[in-house]
Amino acid sequence: MIKKVGIIGAGAMGLGIAQACAQAGLSVVLNDINLELVEKAVNRIDKMLGKAVAKGKLTEEVKAGILGLIVKSSNLQDVADCDVIIEAIVENMEIKKNLFQQLDSICKPETILASNTSSLSVSELANVTKRPSQFIGMHFFNPVQMMKLVEVVRPLQVSAETEQTIMELSRKLGKEPVPVKDSPGFVVNRILTMGSGEVPFMLQEGVATPDAIDKCMKLGANWRMGPCELGDFVGIDISLATRMTLYREFGEDKYRPCLFTNQMIRAGFLGRKTGKGYYIYDAEGNNLGNNPALFK
Prior knowledge:
Elements lengths: L3 E5 L3 H12 L3 E5 L3 H20 L5 H9 L1 E4 L10 E4 L5 H14 L5 E4 L6 H5 L8 E5 L9 E6 L5 H13 L3 E6 L6 H9 L1 H8 L4 H11 L6 H8 L1 H15 L8 H8 L12 E3 L5 E4 L6
Parallel strand pairs: 1-2, 1-4, 2-3, 4-5, 5-6, 7-8
Antiparallel strand pairs: 6-7, 9-10
Helix pairs in contact: 1-2
């Protein structure tokens, strides 16, 4: 039975996963290389839970109990006795491999290792450990607190027992787990990459503005967020990294990234996190309209 979960990475995904686990009654160790990042993440969780209290969805006592289940950590040794470790760090194969090699030597033999990678090979990550049958992908979606889906990514080496345990854990977190094979981009990102990948080409060709593209997809395809809004929310650099993974793995021109995307990244237009992407944002993250720099 899963009672204690270690989350490596205190960014948007890591804190969301940590909150979901704590709200499900699990003990959580939220770890990052910088304790200040973990402090900021827990403060964000505190604020989000505070909003739920203000709306009458939680009591102060329940909120305090959830926060009390989260241990802040900057030392990997703190996750040694966790039943499951979920990695949510930068989308870089070598950095992830290095982390999992360390975790493999630190964690108890029965610990399951999971990656929240959005596109990288889970089979390749599993192969750097001595427990490939206990290695799996858990691809959550941002914001974790709201999004129901977890793609349970099955590398070739994984055991049926590990898969079943992670399916049950996902349900305990209030999610809908869907098992998928280990393939670049899995299901959601492989489809979204094809659609969102057309956006910079359309902007470059002057087909439409970001707000027009988003309005078309929301009204015409019933998307909850338009591709430009989504790109800014996820991060233009993160979206490009996913596309590059598909391009390298499949070697097909249909996954070729647009030069315009690289130009945006070089200019620092990464989305909400930098205040400029397809749109511009104020200090609170409110959308102020199309980024005029894209139309010079």
